[in-house]
Amino acid sequence: MQKSDHENLVPLPHAAQNRCFGCGPANPGGLHLEFLRAADGTVVCPVTIPDAFEGPPGYLHGGIIATLLDEVMSKAVRAQGFTAMTRHLGIDYQRPVPSGAPIRMEARLVRSEGRKHWTEASILDAEGTALAHGKGLFIEVRVHKPAAHP
Q1: Is residue 147 part of a domain?
Q2: Domain limits at 59?
Q3: Residue 84: CB atoms within 10 Å
Q4: Helix or strand (DSSP H, E) at 133
Q5: 36 within some domain
Q6: Which one-letter DSSP state was computed for residue 53?
Q7: DSSP state of 22
Q8: Which CATH number covers residue 92?
Q9: 81-93 pLDDT, tens digit each
Q10: pLDDT tens digits, 45-66
Q11: How far apart are CA 131 and CA 125, in angstroms?
Q12: How far apart are CA 38 and CA 41, in angstroms?
């Protein structure tokens, strides 16, 4: 995945009362991530994560890095019209991810089979160097409407 010089990014909307730790605007302690969709279907999130989410001084905690990758991959699935939850998440921590510095997350849906959706994501620094890479399997959640009562 690589940044295009001529991207046409469109905001990916979310529910205003969403309390999700990663993207929910209604969660005061959350990350408040905002996602954009590129014309090729890639989901992008440029962000600077504050030092409140550090592990080692100056760098993000590994669990936060996992959260970031999980979030952007789930949005890649949602951008294709599916509501899904994480079944499996694999992470390759390639380089430390700095806190308080601009980073860019990118994810895409790799393939789908029935309710299963496979994704890949990267976290890049401002120069485009890969800092972490993730792969995920998401299982589509089918929303069932409650039966009407007579």
Answers
A1: no
A2: 10-140
A3: 22
A4: strand 130-140
A5: yes
A6: G
A7: T
A8: 3.10.129.10
A9: 999 999 999 999 9
A10: 999 999 999 999 999 999 999 9
A11: 7
A12: 5
Cα separation, 74 vs 137, whole angstroms: 9
On whether the pTM is more than 0.85, the answer is yes
Query: 129 forms bridges with which residues in the sheet?
Result: none
The pair of structure tokens assigned to 21 is: 């730790």
> Looking at the 3D structure of the chain, how many domains does it have?
1
Q: How far apart are CA 117 and CA 41, in angstroms?
A: 14
Q: Cα separation of 49 and 82, whole Å? A: 27
Contact between 67 and 21 under an 8 Å Cβ cutoff? The reply is yes
Paired tokens of 70: 């999980």
Residue with tokens 């993730």: 134
Q: Which of 114, 109, 108, 116 is nearest to 138 (CA)?
A: 116
Given pLDDT bands bounded at 50, 70 and 90, which one contains residue 145?
A: low
State the Cα–Cα distance between residues 75 and 13, nearest whole angstrom. 10
> Following DSSP, what letter does each residue of 73-104 receive, concatenated?
HHHHHHTTT--EEEEEEEEEE-SPPBSSSEEE
H or E element, residue 142: none
